[in-house]
Each structure stands twice: as C-alpha cells, then as structure tokens.
C-alpha cells in the first residue's frame, strides 16, 4: 500500500484529488494538510511514502516546504502538484529536491502514475513539464554536455550504466532487472552516484544523465 499525504490549501481541490486516488486500491491517503507547515508536521508524524504538495499555500509555500521535507524526511518522496506551469516554478521545485512535478490540469492517470513512480524511488514529470525541461536542456546544450560529461567522469562504468537508467525514469527494481543485479546493490549504486555528483535526488541525477548524453548512448 502506498501511503500518501495530500497538501493543498483549497478543500475542493483536496476532495477532487482524494477522489482520484480512491480509484486506485494500492493508494491510501493517510492525512491532509491545508498549508506547508502543517504538511511538514503531518509528514513527520505519519511518515507517508509520498507527499502531494501544492506550490502556493499559506504559512509556508510548497517550494519552502519541499526543501524542509528533504532535510527532515529524506525517505519520503515529494510530488509537486500545481496549476502553475511556469519554468521558474519547475526549476525551483526540482532544484529544492522534489521527486516529480504534475500540473493539476493534467490527465488523472498522470497523477496515479506519478505517485507509483515516486513511491518506487523513480522520478516523474508530467509530459508537459518534461517538454519544458527538455527544451531548457536543449538550449546551450554543447556547453552543458561538456560540463556534465566532465562531472560524470568520476563514476565507474557500472555507475554510469545505473545513471543512464535513472535518467530513463526506471525505478531501482526495474534497473535491477535490466542489469541483472539485486535491488539492494542498485540502491547502493544510486546513493553513491548522488554523493559523487552532489545531486539532491534522482531528478537532478536524471537531468545530468540527459545533459551528458547517456540516454543517447543507450539507444
């Protein structure tokens, strides 16, 4: 069962999202929060697998809340849910350590897919958000690629293999099957990769994999 905490300051939005999640028998909403500070407190008391976090909330907005959650509850995945698709929100949310980003206007199936992906340790971006990120990565690609390749040079060949599959959005279990490893070994590789690359989470590591061209090599 995937335990989810839902944080949004609008009761009607929470009710709508809760109704969508109720359609999946593998998801359970364990708590709801109306502001960022309450979301942090409830996360610490309920220890959910995933926090669905709105960006604009009173007391403490989602961007500040995700930064605090990454420090206080690093084992909990944070999936940002918002009506705002501007690049600055996407970049800041991912930069603060969010595991994924969804738009409220997206397909409800994206919400369920995102929760499952983040709960399994993978990253998830809705298609519209992914397009924005890829477009941003495409600009100035040559300089980014050179810098990214220099950064990943410190990785072992096996770590680069794992990083490429993290970039493709695979979970630890999926990577283990692909590379014929046990899941614990993959988890150790991912942890080492994040440390070596000074990346806060899998999303940042995945972006670096794209910039370095690792996914192109996989094709």
TrEMBL record:
<feature type="modified residue" description="4-aspartylphosphate">
    <location>
        <position position="54"/>
    </location>
</feature>
<keyword id="KW-0804">Transcription</keyword>
<dbReference type="InterPro" id="IPR011006">
    <property type="entry name" value="CheY-like_superfamily"/>
</dbReference>
<dbReference type="GO" id="GO:0003677">
    <property type="term" value="F:DNA binding"/>
</dbReference>
<dbReference type="Pfam" id="PF00196">
    <property type="entry name" value="GerE"/>
</dbReference>
<keyword id="KW-0597">Phosphoprotein</keyword>
<keyword id="KW-0238">DNA-binding</keyword>
<dbReference type="InterPro" id="IPR039420">
    <property type="entry name" value="WalR-like"/>
</dbReference>
<dbReference type="InterPro" id="IPR016032">
    <property type="entry name" value="Sig_transdc_resp-reg_C-effctor"/>
</dbReference>
<dbReference type="InterPro" id="IPR001789">
    <property type="entry name" value="Sig_transdc_resp-reg_receiver"/>
</dbReference>
<protein>
    <submittedName>
        <fullName>DNA-binding response regulator</fullName>
    </submittedName>
</protein>
<dbReference type="Pfam" id="PF00072">
    <property type="entry name" value="Response_reg"/>
</dbReference>
<feature type="domain" description="Response regulatory">
    <location>
        <begin position="3"/>
        <end position="119"/>
    </location>
</feature>
<dbReference type="GO" id="GO:0000160">
    <property type="term" value="P:phosphorelay signal transduction system"/>
</dbReference>
<dbReference type="InterPro" id="IPR000792">
    <property type="entry name" value="Tscrpt_reg_LuxR_C"/>
</dbReference>
<keyword id="KW-0805">Transcription regulation</keyword>
<dbReference type="GO" id="GO:0006355">
    <property type="term" value="P:regulation of DNA-templated transcription"/>
</dbReference>
<dbReference type="InterPro" id="IPR058245">
    <property type="entry name" value="NreC/VraR/RcsB-like_REC"/>
</dbReference>
<feature type="domain" description="HTH luxR-type">
    <location>
        <begin position="148"/>
        <end position="213"/>
    </location>
</feature>
């Amino acid at each position: 069962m995937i335990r989810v905490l839902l944080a949004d300051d609008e009761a009607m939005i929470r009710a709508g999202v809760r109704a969508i999640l109720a359609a999946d028998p593998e998801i359970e909403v364990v708590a709801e929060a109306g502001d960022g500070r309450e979301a942090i407190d409830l996360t610490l008391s309920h220890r959910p697998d995933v926090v669905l976090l709105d960006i604009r909330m009173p007391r403490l907005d989602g961007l500040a809340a995700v930064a605090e959650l990454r420090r206080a509850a690093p084992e909990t995945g944070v999936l940002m849910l918002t009506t705002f698709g501007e690049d600055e929100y996407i970049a800041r949310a991912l930069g603060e350590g969010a595991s994924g980003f969804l738009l409220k206007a997206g397909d409800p199936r994206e919400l369920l897919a995102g929760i499952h992906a983040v709960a399994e340790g993978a990253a998830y971006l809705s298609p519209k958000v992914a397009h924005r990120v890829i477009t941003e990565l495409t600009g100035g690609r040559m300089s980014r690629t050179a810098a990214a390749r220099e950064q990943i040079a410190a990785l072992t060949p096996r770590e680069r293999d794992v990083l490429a599959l993290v970039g493709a959005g695979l979970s630890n279990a999926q990577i283990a099957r692909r590379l014929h490893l046990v899941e614990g070994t993959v988890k150790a590789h991912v942890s080492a990769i994040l440390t070596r690359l000074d990346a806060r989470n899998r999303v940042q590591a995945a972006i670096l994999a794209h910039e370095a061209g690792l996914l192109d090599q996989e094709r």
